[in-house]
User: Fold these one by one.
Assistant:
Number 1:
Amino acid sequence: MNIATITQCPVSTGGFIGAITDWLVGLMSIMGWLGTGIAVFLENLFPPIPSEVILPLAGFTAAQGHMTLVEAIGGATIGSAVGALVLYGIAYAIGANRMRRLFDLLPLTDASDIDKANAWFAKYGLVSVLIGRVIPIARSLISIPAGIARTNLLKFTLLTTLGSAVWNTILVMAGYVLGASWCSILGFLDKFQYAVAAIVVALLTWYVVVKVRSHLQAAQE
């Protein structure tokens, strides 16, 4: 498969991020499922790398016979889980203040990203690890407050793997089914992700309200 052919989509990434994305695309086409795992692993460690490009391309690469569909999904999910665990481990080891300073030093990130992730995790707890995998940027950052809070590693791993598997399957399947037209979903994905995020936030808000009301009623009895 010619790399130039599969990167002709008008993806809105350029410069540094565009160069990284192109390199990851080549990695997947050459190394198959292992390259997919490495690409998704790096995307988890560096949130500005767009999984919305990498995952459909993994599906398209599978459709071209460079790996099976199961290998594409499996490699992506392993990469997601390992990347999340690395971020969890770093946050666990160095704590919130050093993570904030680190994000201030890294390109295209800043300390406010950590603050937003911490606020999200503080509000919704471990369930945010599961649903965060389908929300832009949060899918990587949510591992950080989980590590800072030193949440149960087994629960974190299970929820991360489950959420990653669902999201990866959707995007890899889309690329596999659409084939050379995979890039037609890119514009739709932005709206889809934020629609999912809005629905998730609404459901979580409803859940919190119900729980608070039940506790208040129990206290009054």
Number 2:
Amino acid sequence: MQTRQLLSVVAWIRARPLIADALLGVLLAVVSLIALVFQSRDEHMPAPGPLAVAFVLLINLPLAWRRAYPLGVNLAIGAAAAAYGATALPDLVTPVPLAGVVAIYSIAAWCGRRVSMVVGVLTAISIVVITVLPATDSDFLDFTFGALLLGSAWVLGDSGRIRRVRTADLEARAIWLARERDFEARRAVTAERARIARELHDVVAHHVSMMVVQAEAGPVAAEHDVRGALRAFDTIAETGRRALVEMRRLLSVLREETDGPEPALVPQPGVAELPGLVEQVRQAGLPATLDIEGEPVPLYAGVDLSAYRIVQEALTNAVKHAGKVPVRVHLRYGRQELRIEVRDDGHAAGPERGGGDDGGPNGGNGLIGMRERAHLFGGELTAGPDPEGGFTVMARLPLGSTRG
């Protein structure tokens, strides 16, 4: 209990340095006066008079501002001590006033090293002057003791200043690192949101386009081919289920609950799933073919997903804008890159094909997203009309890319 109370008192004093330093000055003044009283009794001299008390107060009380104005306090104490030594008043018990020791410590602790060294030299000179004054009884031993006392105080103060500077540097670095972590976390969140937005755009645009095509063809098929109409509705249901699965996978990343069970991880689609994607487009009534040239090689996960999404978006554009015309998907594995070409025989590019880069209301977000995916891994993508008609999307993805 006593230890806790003592810690509370120490914490209270540290939180109020001005009060603590004022109490220190008063304490040293009282100690100095008591020492003078006992010294006068031992030497059969009169007790310290009002002038001696005034000088003692002038020497010690300025310590209340030793942290805020260390240089001014040091000069004030030095001047008061020099004036006291020039009088015929009894000598102080110590060759150097205790307040002077605290003042030297303070100036070394709270001022720069250059300033504190200059003050230290001036203080040493003043000690020599005070020692040789005829009004004092100081000798070489007193001078040596005072110099050692002040030198030790300066060394302790300078060490405290160095520790405080290092601590401040460490705290500043810790704050900087914390801000950097926050910035990196925010940047990662922004990048993840952009990635999820691209994924959602690709998933929704593709699957909804497939469902719209099937839904539009269903009533027509029902008049002539009931089984075909039923297959169309089955395809719509299957497409919707696939869209829900992918959307749940993406939206699970945005969940804020941390105490619930983790969502089941679903593999990201890649080039291996392109045959199924082309078959899905074919079931929607678009004559689509897939041709793979070269020996397939394992791809980085990001490159694999980007290749799939680029083909998916290109097929989605063909479904929405080209009509029921042949679409050819061609993949060619080279030694250093994967080339993707998606070409349809539909209408030439126009605002409805999303051929612009402005991402305006007429389209363009899909092509911008495809270009971003290619550029993310050091590749490139071009899209535009063919001279003989139709629309072609061509992409190049480096096989050894580790960017992103």
